[in-house]
Amino acid sequence: MLIIDGDYPMAHGGVDMDRDLTLPIEEVRAATDRRSAMDGWPDAETMASLPEMRKGGVAAALVKVCGRIRRPNSPIWGYRTGHQAYAAGQAQLAYYRILAAEGEARILSTSGEMAAHMREWADAEERDGLPVGFIIGMEGADPILWPEQVHEWWESGIRVISLSHYGVSTYSHGTGTGTDGGLFPPAPALLREMDELGMILDVTHTSDRSVREAVAAFDGPLLASHQNCRAVSPGERQQPDDILLEVIRRGGVIGHSMDTWMLYKDGIDWANVPHRRDVFERSEVTLDNMVDHVDHVSQLAGNTLHSAIGGDTDGQGGREGAPHEIDTVADYQKLADALDRRGYSGEDIENIMHRNWQRFYEEHLPE
Q: What pLDDT is attached to residue 274?
C-alpha cells in the first residue's frame, strides 16, 4: 500500500545532522566520524533514507524547512538572528532542490504534479528508481523576516507554513513553553499575505490561543502535519477537540505523530520534558496507541477522511522515540495491520495511509 508521510523534517537530518540520506538505511546507520556541530541522536537511530522510503512505499512526504531564532528560555536549539534563520531555511531549500535535480526526489508544487506523481507510483511495478515526492513546508515562520517576504518563499516552492515551533517565534507562541500566549503583532499581516497566495496554514506546534486567533483571521486551508489528541494523551503538545474540529470543519487533515511522547497515554509536562526511558519502556507505546488517536479524530469527524500519518520522521528522536513496532519508515506499513485489527475497512485504511493527504493536496495546491 502507498503511504504519504505528513511530516518528515528531512533537511534537519541531511543538512544539520550531516547524514547522506541517499544511502540505504543500513549505511546511514553505520556512518562514522559525523562532523555536525549540532547535538542530536546517533546516526544508528535514523529511521528514514530515500531508498528506505521507496522500500516502504512512501511515495511522498511533507518535508520541512526549519530555521528557528533562539530566544530567552527557548526549549531547543536556534539561531541568534533572523538573518541566520533565513539563510538556514534557504540552505535547506537548496538541499531539496539538488535531490530533485539528481532524480532522487520530485518537488510537488501544484495539484497536477501531485496527481501525476501518485499515479506514477501506483502504476509502477518497480519502485527502486522512482523519485520520492516532496511537498515543502516551513516549520516555524522565523525565516520569514517580514510578512510580505512570504511571497519570496512561495516562489521558492514553500506551500505550507506553521507560525511557530518549540517556544516563542516572531509570529506566535508555540508549544513547549508551559504558557498559552497568542499571536504577536506581525502575525495578522503574515496571515493575510498567506491567504492571498493560497498558502496552507499548519496549526502544529502552535499554542491553543495562537491557533484560535490565527484561524479566526485566516480563511485558507488548514492542516495539522504532526499532531495528536489531548483527549487521548494529555499535554500541551497535543490539541484539544475544538481545534481538531476546526481543522475537520475546514476539510483539513490531522497527521498523527509517531513520537511516543505524543502517544504516551499518561502525558507529560511539555515545559520540562524528561528522558523517555526514565518514564516508560519502549515496548509500552505501540501502534495501538496511535490507532487510539485515529479513532478519536474519526469519531469527531464521523468518518475516516481527516486522519493520516504525520510521522515527524527522525524529528521525534529517531527509532528510540518511535512506537515499539517501528524500526524504519518502511514499518509504517504495519499501521495498516493495526487498523485492520480494529475493524477499519480497506477503504478506511487507504484513506489514512495516503488518500486523505493526496486528496487534500490535490484540492489545495495551486493548479
A: 86
